[in-house]
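Troubleshooting log. The previous structure file for this entry was overwritten by mistake, so regenerating from the original sequence record. Sequence copied from the archived sheet and checked twice against the printout by T.R.
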Amino acid sequence: LEAAAARGVDVRLILPNRANHGIMDAGNLVAARKLLRAGAKVYHYPRMTHLKAMVCDGWAIVGSANLDTI
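Regenerated output below.
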């Protein structure tokens, strides 16, 4: 995502204000800062959310499974 944002791709990330695990808040902050520096837009959702969604070239995928092992 960071490389795509740096290339000018419209990258938007929605993060919860508070994750369900404290360590995730720290990781989200690090990731958000990198993405912001690369030109992405980062938004905070006021509550916890576990939703994962992606829209790419007119296609959308929505789910709740973690995408970290893909």
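The chain has a mean pLDDT of 88. Archived copy saved in two places this time.
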